[in-house]
Amino acid sequence: MNDDARPAPEPRDIPPHSGAADEANRQDPSRRSVLWTTAGVAGAGLGLGALGGGTASAAGRSAPDAVAAAEAVAAAPPRQGRTMAGVPFERRSTVRVGIIGLGNRGDSMIDLFLALPGVQVKAVCDTVRDKAEKAAKKVTAAGQPAPAIYAKDEHDYENLCKRGDIDFVYVVTPWELHFPMAKTAMLNGKHVGVECPIAMRLEELWQLVDLSERTRRHCMQLENCCYGKNEMRVLRMAHAGLFGELQHGAGAYNHDLRELMFDPDYYEGPWRRLWHTRLRGDLYPNHGFGPVANYMDVNRGDRVVSISSVGTTPLGLAAYREEHMEPGDPSWKESYIGADRTISLVQTAKGRVIRLEHDVSSPHPYSRINSLGGTKGVFEDYPERIYLEPTNTNHQWDDFKKYAEWDHWLWKEHANPPGGHGGMDYIMVFRLMQCMRLGLVPDFDVYDAAVWTAPVPLSHLSIKAKGVPLPIPDFTRGEWKKARSGMDSEKPAE
Asked: Is the pTM of this model over 0.70?
């Protein structure tokens, strides 16, 4: 659930781990500008973002090559700092926030920050000045001092990050900007929360992990679906043992976005659609992956070790264009390679299996699947239903509403939260700001962000290699073996 600010060139990277990772990481930042011109779209789609090589000749790349490329990046480099697992925020009476990106998502989320006591919005940034000024008016209307506005150019977010009166930077921009903006925030001493996915390359994920450890700043994937009411209820039930020994789960982002991706007014430019000209894999795994990873205590006693992905032919976007777009529309210069539906199987160290799906290019009612199964029963969402022994023995689904006693304390305290997506956006922002004010350990950290996003590049490479299983890095460098708290939190004393 992302935003639509215009893209900006990224600042200089910290040194990469190794040149051996090129096959799994190939994206040429110097050619970024061509992505946003209709004349360059077709070439960019084939030659830039295809992490496994990107050209037509690379489409048949062998499985051994793909595995070697993934293993080169999966190998953990030497740690440059100390682990951020279990590290609390510094306690503060007021959390001072800077927001980068004020399109669809950012414009709605600023209302939630302003609704919370002990939170001040100190600065806003967008390359479209009208959007930044609209956000600034919301801040003053809420009774806060006028925030600083950063809308000078595509690099002005760097100046926001340099401010000395900001504790937390919220990044809500097109995907390729998430990494450079998160990096800039941490290098300037700020904690940072990023809309999903947090980066598009494995090498970038490692850089964010290293930077978080070096700077002692938290870098978090703000995965709102982890805070859904059903997700948090299932989480508590799973941890209480109601499902027995956990065996399998599934999550997805199956959401028909064809009309929105071709709408010239919804997104600021065609940035989201253009990713379908660059990558074949799962572009948006986080909404489905995050909750299931939480159920299974991934990075907190278990870890994901491999992923195998397959994908359908890319027909949906071209078919929609044929039916709805005028012959002179710039989209006719685009060549779509992204699979209409990707299906990935993720294996964990404990032998559990997670199925991930992604489909935004074909007709389908909205579904994140959100299922969990164990030795005592199973839950499935969309629609919600449950079957648990010994209560259920008749091979018929039961009513999930009967289990409301297992609701997380956040949902018991905020029964009718404001904001979008059924209230989970508000719950997420409330909890994050609470952790920062009280000096608590965040519910998730940079390691979770890296794991939940790793399927973006790896699913692409696995599909190109005909579904070969590829290793998922241990971004925790062994810390996953230690049980620690996560989203199944106790209500803190204020």
From this structure: yes
